[in-house]
Description:
This protein has one helix at residues 5-17, and strands spanning 20-25, 28-40, 43-49, 56-60, 66-69. By secondary structure, it is an alpha+beta fold. Strands 4-3-2-1-5 form a 5-stranded antiparallel beta sheet.
Amino acid sequence: MRWSPERLDQLERAIRDGRRVAVRRRGNEHIVVAVALVTRAAREAFVGRLPMTGEELVFALEELDAFQVL
């Protein structure tokens, strides 16, 4: 997936507003509440919190197949 400036703006807005996002990575889809944009091991990633358990998942932007703000 290519990260255009518009897509990054959508992600940043979702983080700022605490919105849910659907992400697909390696064939698995996760629906999480966007929490933060971080840098891990010289790669950009975002942190999402599972709504049911509160567990935080880290998604490297380059590994995502699809992304949508809900």
